[in-house]
């Protein structure tokens, strides 16, 4: 039964819930805030589909190119680039898709900015909600069935998600679908929704107001500052960077509240599951400092469909050919596993009693000397050179 899957394997893609023909699979959220499947034995008809199709128990094969064309890219629209997490390539590809009458499926924040889920949309308003990375797990319950229905009705769909969610969708549908276009990203690992909610709750308490807008990896102090920017209903603003924000400390440096299975991800590999793969072009050489501060995406063109998507958006993109080695120089998580450094179980126990920042501080503290060295390097490289834009 799928409910006996080990926690360090299950990706939480929720595809087994959608594929079960008798509605026997549901999900239980554990104390780490991550969900895992449960099976109602009375409803289960023992067809075995959940196990046969699970992308964590069976690697989903891909015919995509194992040596894809690699580009550095960004949107030519300054606002789109500013509002996006990297260079805004997702927005331009999805906008062109909507303009041709297609549906987009991706991740949005809940109205209180404390959880995230996958939805299907067709308008620019939908696109504005879907753009931007949310660095914690999105709830995908029902999305596989909804996409399947649209495809059966002859509609075109552009799905974007983590590589394991893309693998789950491909496994659910069973064969390559002409009308389905797939996007994924280089994925370090996904975080616990409970940790993220606790992080926002604490900041709301400190600012005595509820959140109106959250931007992770805000460009206000430059792309490389990895800052979180939060606007509150009372008009106040929170803006902290990689050295001062406890979420970034726990995730970027410690992988402290990441889903357990992400330490042994099956999809950090080539060929990719999706038609296009996006990422951050960290460490890119030969671009101006201004461009680096505005954000630069890496794009892998993994298939003919990927090439079609790029062609459709090309008039709104800056695109230059680069190599895989250049990407690997600055992006270890394309192939490398993210290893958790702090004490994860203690962190989640503490989180039940203490504010988020205290739980991070007490279970993960970076060596002070390393931190000091990184901070001085950052100041020398960016702060003195930074331009306002
Ligand atoms: C959890 C996570 C880890 C990542 N790790 C890396 C990394 O190690 N290296 C790297 O180069 N890039 C990483 N990225 C990708 C990077 O942050 C950008 O999303 C990517 O470069 C595309 O940028 P963009 O500006 O074009 O688009 P954006 O506007 O940022 O892209 C938005 C698209 O991403 C999807 N998305 C956003 N959040 C989620 C989510 N929680 N779950 C599923 N789909 C989501 C949305 O549906 C939307 O379609 C990660 C992204 C996420 C969400
Ligand atoms: S990886 Fe996905 S399909 Fe497999 S058990 Fe976990 S939630 Fe279900
Ligand atoms: S690291 Fe792998 S398993 Fe974890 S969310 Fe990303 S693609 Fe899925």
Automatic annotation (TrEMBL):
Keywords: Iron, Iron-sulfur, Metal-binding
Gene Ontology molecular function: iron-sulfur cluster binding; metal ion binding
Domain of life: Bacteria
Source organism of the structure: Roseburia porci
InterPro entries associated with the record: 4Fe4S_Fe-S-bd (IPR017896), 4Fe4S_Fe_S_CS (IPR017900), FrhB_FdhB_C (IPR007525), Polyferredoxin-like_ET (IPR052977)
PROSITE patterns linked to this entry: 4FE4S_FER_1 (PS00198), 4FE4S_FER_2 (PS51379)
This protein's name: 4Fe-4S dicluster domain-containing protein
Gene3D superfamilies: 3.30.70.20
């Amino acid at each position: 039964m799928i409910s006996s899957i080990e926690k360090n394997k299950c990706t939480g893609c929720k595809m087994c819930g959608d594929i079960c023909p008798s509605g026997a699979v549901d999900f239980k959220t554990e104390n780490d805030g991550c969900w895992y499947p449960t099976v109602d034995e009375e409803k289960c008809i023992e067809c075995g589909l959940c196990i046969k199709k699970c992308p964590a128990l069976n690697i989903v094969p891909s015919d995509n190119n194992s040596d894809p064309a690699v580009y550095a890219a960004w949107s030519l629209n300054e606002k789109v680039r500013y509002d996006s997490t990297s260079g805004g390539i997702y927005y331009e590809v999805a906008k062109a898709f909507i303009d041709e009458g297609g549906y987009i499926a991706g991740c949005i924040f809940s109205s209180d900015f404390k959880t995230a889920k996958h939805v299907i949309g067709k308008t620019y308003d939908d696109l504005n909600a879907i753009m931007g990375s949310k660095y914690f797990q999105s709830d995908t319950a029902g999305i596989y069935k909804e996409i399947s229905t649209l495809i059966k009705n002859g509609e075109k769909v552009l799905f974007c998600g983590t590589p394991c969610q893309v693998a789950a969708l491909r496994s659910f549908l069973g064969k390559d679908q002409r009308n389905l276009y797939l996007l994924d990203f280089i994925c370090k690992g996904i975080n616990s929704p409970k940790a993220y909610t606790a992080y926002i709750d604490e900041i709301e308490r400190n600012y005595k107001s509820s959140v109106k807008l959250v931007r992770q990896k805000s460009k206000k102090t430059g792309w490389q500052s990895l800052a979180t920017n939060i606007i509150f209903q009372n008009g106040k603003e929170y803006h902290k960077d990689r050295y001062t924000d406890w979420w970034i400390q726990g995730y970027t440096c410690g992988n402290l509240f990441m889903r357990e299975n992400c330490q042994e991800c099956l999809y950090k590999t080539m060929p990719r599951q999706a038609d296009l793969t996006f990422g951050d072009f960290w460490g890119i050489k030969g671009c101006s400092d201004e461009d680096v501060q505005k954000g630069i995406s890496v794009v892998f063109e993994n298939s003919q469909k990927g090439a079609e998507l790029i062609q459709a958006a090309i008039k709104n993109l800056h695109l230059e050919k680069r190599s895989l080695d250049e990407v690997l120089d600055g992006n270890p998580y394309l192939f490398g596993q993210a290893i958790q450094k702090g004490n994860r179980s203690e962190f989640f126990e503490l989180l039940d009693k203490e504010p988020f920042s205290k739980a991070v501080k007490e279970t993960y503290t970076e060596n002070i000397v390393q931190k000091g060295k990184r901070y001085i390097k950052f100041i020398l490289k960016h702060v003195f050179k930074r331009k306002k834009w």
